[in-house]
Give the backbone structure.
Amino acid sequence: MVRNEDYGIDWSWHDAHGFSRMVNVAGTMTAVGGSVTSRAVADATAAAMTRFVKIHELQTRAATVIGDLTGAEAGFVTASASAGITLAIAGCLTGLDPAGVEALPTDPGPAPGVAVQMGHLCEYGAPVVQAITLAGARPHVFGQSTLTRDYQLDAALDGASAALYVVSHHVVDYGMMPLETFTRICHAKGVPVIVDAASEYDLTGMIAKGADLVIYSGHKFMGGPTSGIVAGRKDLVRAAYMHNIGIGRGMKIGKESLCGAIAAMEQWKTRDHAAIRAAETRTLDMWAMAVEGLPGITARALPDPTANPLERLRIWIDREQAGASAAQFSVLFGQLDPPIAVRGHEAEKGYIDLDPCNLIEGQAEMVRDALPLVLGQAGTAAQVEDATALSDIRNGGTQSYLDWLG
Ligand SMILES: *Cc1c(COP(=O)(O)O)cnc(C)c1O
């Protein structure tokens, strides 16, 4: 048994409120609260709670900090990256026109299209296409899931007010149009490019490659409270922000999260990225050693698929030799006390990944000790049917909503 007392982890908050303890090596997942913030970010959030402040002033400060980080002319903060996509599109549809703002989503204006390549229509917890249609825009989907050609984008821009480009490990990773080509073709037709870079570390590259608006999550690598960052051309940022008096009302960010997001962005500039990376590398080495020599198990640190500066430990599980499948073992990790959420969404390919980015003190060691224990319990893991475990990975998110209060 992995004994909780051995790691000095403070579970008092969870225990006092009766919430499940949780070790997250799956990544920044909304279902477990995004990320964990630093004390400074938490304090900045709390400090705003007991005061009134002009939201426009906070957003002006955010605009400066966002400009500083991204090289963009301006920016603002909203409820989430998903909200940021919808507001960015809304801004491109209407410009700085209050009547146009109030007309959405029913009347998206004379050019309601948003060009997007089919291989970018991913699911990030919700369908990206819905972030487009929420604004009243019409997706002009071009190309096929595995290949897009330049002329297809050119044609899709007719009747379009914006084009959306998604940078993510969720999208098809070959046959897609590079961002530089995408912006060149769009700009030739005067159509602005919106980049969804919600989960990317690269804060300057998209603007540098010609993006007109870029969206980041505040609660992923940035380590802020739940929030979305919109950066880009000043005219479009102002237009997108204006939708707070329209469809963006339900996507608004409060003073507390605004202050937390600003603190997280400021912290990003001074954060010792090299030291954090080194600590993550040590954690991965420690985990790899813990599974070395286990039958049917091979582990190796792999770079992030979109070249974010981090590695994850991939653990390949040979079902015959290990006695159970990757999906079956990932279920077993989730049944520990505390549950360890592993990155199992590609388990059908025979591996799970461990993400070192969101660990609280003591948790890396707990995971190290849990690894050989769980992977040594093939008999227990095999009690869950493999097909059921795989089906749960695909359908579990939806099922959890069907079950909630059910
Ligand atoms: C996470 C993610 C989103 C959604 O981000 P939220 O801030 O949680 O709304 C959108 N797009 C991509 C590519 C993502 O990874």
Remarks:
- The chain has 17 helices and twelve strands.
- The pocket of pyridoxal-5'-phosphate is lined by residues 30, 80-82, 124, 166, 168, 170, 196, 198-199, 217, 228 (CB under 6 Å).
- The CA atoms of residues 184 and 210 lie 8 Å apart.
